[in-house]
Amino acid sequence: MKNFIFFVIIIFSLVYTNSDAQWELTSGANGSTIRGFAVNDAGIFAGFTARYDSAGVILSTDFGVNWSNVSTGLPAREIDGLFAHSSDLFASENDAGIYISTDNGASWTVTGLTVAYIYYFASIGTNLFAGDFNNGVLLSTDNGATWNFVNSGLTNTSTRALYAKGSNLFAGTRGGGVFLSSDNGTSWTAVNSGLTNHYIYALIHNGSNLFAGTYNSGVFLSTNNGTSWTAASNGLPSNTVVAFAVSGGNLFAGVDGSGVYLTTNNGSDWTDVTTGLTSLTIRALKVSGSYLYVGGENSGVWRRPLSEMITGAEDEQNSLPESYALYQNYPNPFNPSTKIKYSVTQSSNVLLKVFNVLGNEIVTIVNEEKPAGTYEVQFNGTGLPSGIYFYKLQAGNFVETKKMILLK
After folding, report:
1. What is the pLDDT at residue 30?
2. Residue 17 scores a pLDDT above 60
3. Cα–Cα distance between 389 and 367 in angstroms, integer?
4. What is the domain range of residue 390?
5. pTM of the shown model
6. 375 exposure class (CB count in 10 Å sphere: 0-12, 13-18, 19+)
7. Could you report the per-residue pLDDT of 294-304, keeping only the tens digit for each?
8. Residue 41 belongs to a domain with what CATH number?
9. Which end of the chain, N or C, is more open, meaning fewer C-beta atoms within 10 Å of its C-beta?
10. pLDDT digits (tens, 9 = 90+) for 49-70
11. Secondary structure of residue 9 in the 3-state scheme
12. Highest mean pLDDT, choosing among 173-182, 242-251, 312-321
């Protein structure tokens, strides 16, 4: 009898542990609405709204275990969007414009845009873009000091999603589908062939694939920057897809009212990974370190180890790079090619360029968003004269330059 009781206790423990290991409600702004996350070297930030007179930004430096309020200078209005750009943070306040923090949220000041409904941001180099819910796309070339609309060709200005990859900027609209600009918003072209639903709520790239989340019609996939689209929703419920997050070659989708879904094959099939997540009104997703974070209406911040959902993923922080790094090229000196290695600690827009001694750009080796990891690329100096060259990495607010020598 004692052996039987012991066996039951062991089984109960295993079941309880497995259940407990799934989605975890963190201490971050419990009961608040979370509509945006941002990640930089300091940690993961979340924009929260508890009620109209209680809102702001919280920061976790230990992967969601503890959170601190970093809202000094922000008015107590709803937080609609959050974005990390270079070394700065931008937060959009409901009908109160955009605020900037240059010290990881310790203080905030209003930018040149004081009245707007901004839900999404994007950046291409030093150009910062904001999607106005009613009036189109805004561009700032001076880090938010001034803003100007760039809507030429944007025939629907109800902007609900914004995403940049390389030199391409995509805008998702309510009723007008997806628009593409390859000249920093100077001109826009609709790219909707095969897109049967033109109400777009989320956009993201995964490698060379572009995904669009739609209103009650699931996900659509484009392999040619929006020139054509196909449905990629097998296994998804028909609710609105409001958010995406990428980890390696894997894509997560937040489906409003239904939870979180995962595809490991670019949308050919989706798997429900919602078990244990009690709030299904999803509003935001973000991968940071070895966790997926979820926020929604009155739900606070939830997290779950990627290793519980993705085969081969590690759930220990030390399985990922502990810091951003740019390594010395090898071999050095080199002729005619060399390898350059770098590490990023979280999903970042990575820019890797080579310059000569006069500061002239020779080539851009990498210009795309990369998930956390360590990467190695090859630089070929064929056709270049012998001499000293510099390679510069910019990822998030990390910037480092190293010297290499081409010796023929």
Report:
1. 85
2. no
3. 19
4. 325-406
5. 0.76
6. middle
7. 999 999 999 99
8. 2.130.10.10
9. N
10. 986 568 899 999 888 999 999 9
11. helix
12. 173-182
pLDDT digits (tens, 9 = 90+) for 195-214: 999 999 999 998 889 999 99
5 within some domain: no
Q: In this structure, are residues 79 and 70 in contact, taking their beta carbons and an 8 Å threshold?
A: no
Residue 308, SS3 per DSSP: helix
Backbone angles phi, psi at 164, to 5 degrees: -125, 140
- pLDDT 10s digits, 360-384: 999 988 887 787 788 888 899 988 9
392: domain CATH number? 2.60.40.1930
CA distances 400 to 117, 146, 340, 396, Å, are 35, 28, 13, 11
- Both 287 and 141 in one domain: the answer is yes
Residue type, 238: S
Same domain assignment for residues 109 and 251? yes
Specify whether 170 is located in the same domain as 251.
yes
Are 152 and 52 found together in one domain? yes
Burial 113-136 (b: 16+ CB within 10 A, else e): beebbbbbbbbbeebbbbbbbeeb
The confidence score (pLDDT) of residue 317 equals: 41
Domain count within the chain: 2
Residue 9: inside a domain, yes or no? Answer: no
Residue whose entry in the numeric block shows the structure tokens 């990629």 = 232
Burial 381-404 (b: 16+ CB within 10 A, else e): beebeeeebebebbbbbbeeebeb
Q: Which residue has the tokens 């270079």?
A: 86
The DSSP secondary structure of 38-78, one letter per residue, reads EEETTEEEEEEEEETTEEEEEEESSTTSS-EE--TT--SS-
- Residue 3: inside a domain: no
CB atoms within 10 A of CB 203: 23
Residue 402: inside a domain, yes or no? yes
As a whole number of angstroms, the distance between CA 116 and CA 110 comes to 12
